[in-house]
Amino acid sequence: MCQSGHHQRMTMKLLVVDDSELIRQRLWELLDFAGIGARTSAATLVEALRFARRDFPTFILLDLNLPDGNAMSIIATLKSLAPAPQIAVLTNDASALTRSQCLQAGADWFFDKSTEFNKAIDVVRSQAALH
User: Fold this and answer.
1) pLDDT value, residue 50
2) Residue 127 has pLDDT above 80, yes or no
3) Which residues of 44-77 are buried (b: 16+ CB within 10 A; e: fewer)?
4) Are the C-beta atoms of residues 71 and 92 closer than 8 Å to each other?
5) Which residues are 66's β-sheet partners?
6) Cα–Cα dist 122/117, whole Å
7) Which residue in 39, 48, 28, 36 sits closest to 12, CA to CA?
8) In CATH, what is the architecture of 10-130?
9) Domain residues of the chain, as ranges?
10) pTM over cut 0.85
């Protein structure tokens, strides 16, 4: 976006969707200095969709197993928003089949919460740096 001949940088807007308050707090601590503008969190599918439609996040960190269902079911809906957010799935349900299904549904990244937590954080930080 150009304004008066200068390139205007967009600030990353992050939505973290995880039903664990502990995980959400840990993510905020780790991402505190990552240059992220607006940050929102949701614990359910309903909240995630409401916040995504209201705030239009540029990046969504998405756990799959939520109290009101499996978040794989909303990936395509989230990707249909304009502008489409980038989505990184961060889950304990990290089978090869689940990974494949999430990526086919439109997720940009897929991380095993128990072994790739720091990789997910690195991706969020690198994407924030691009914004």
Assistant:
1) 97
2) yes
3) ebebbbebbeeeebbbbbbbbebeeeebbebbee
4) no
5) 69
6) 9
7) 36
8) 3-Layer(aba) Sandwich (3.40)
9) 10-130
10) yes
